[in-house]
Amino acid sequence: MPDAQPKPPSGLIGSVQRALRVLETVADGGDGITAKAVARRTGFKLSTTYHLLNTLVHEGYLVRLANARGFGLGYKLPELHDSLKEQLSVTPEVAYTLRDLHHRAKAAMYYAVVRDDELVVAEVADSPEHRKAEPLDLGFDRSAHATSFGKVLLAAMSPTARRHYLAGAGLARLTNRTITRLEDLDRELALVRKTGIAAEIEEFQPGLACLATPVKDKEGRTTAAVALSVPVKDFAKRRRQLETLIRNGGEELSRLHF
User: Fold this and answer.
1) Apex CA 210: angle with CA 209 and CA 216, to 5°?
2) Residue ranges, the chain, pLDDT below 50
3) 16 Cβ contact list (under 8 Å, min separation 6)
């Protein structure tokens, strides 16, 4: 049986939801998507779709493309993206370093932070040759117990904060190698604190192996985690090289705090 969909909270504003759906549809459809195509994909009436499109154009989130006779994303969106990156402490220097590590490691790279009470992926660097693991994209905030960057951030928490987080997040079994007992996870996190590196092999996803290490501020506090992922079939023969690279990456990113 499929999982039951969670009941939406009360008080949601339908017109806002529809506007966001239109925005996502234009983003997915690309430059020049027509109002009729948006209406068809969203299931909204054409008149409603025109009202929503015109409102989004007026506010700067979409543009009307005269030559293409359709719509495209507007120029206000990069401002939101830049603001989000700033709030997640992803400076241009952090993004550049992560991209450089990606090329050197020939592996997808991730930068994760603690935002309020979430352990969230704040930046990803990948390429067609070395793709990120799905769904590890910007904003991913689940399964910390089964990801290498999650283990680094959990290991840096106080015992009280960690147990509070895990009480809400749980220890879901994602594969037959996922750690699902708190006692086992505590032992794993103690090892992370001792060695300064976290590993997970097929705990999050079959066929995937990951390594992570802390990023620290000038006081030595863990402020983020940098991680990499590779196919598990390549991991054993590259592990020593990848461990050296991820440690160096953590040190390079930590120096950006000075």
Assistant:
1) 170
2) 1-4
3) none
pTM: 0.84
| β-bridge partners, 228 | 109, 211
Beta-sheet pairing, 208-216 with 118-125: unpaired
CA angle 236, 237, 242 (to 5 degrees): 85
- Residue pair 14/51 in contact (Cβ under 8 Å)? The answer is no
What is the CB neighbour count within 10 angstroms for residue 150?
A: 27
The confidence score (pLDDT) of residue 179 equals 97
Class of residue 73 by CB neighbours under 10 A (exposed 0-12, middle 13-18, buried 19+)? middle
The Cα-based distances of 89 to 5, 77, 93, 245, 257 in angstroms read 33, 19, 10, 22, 11
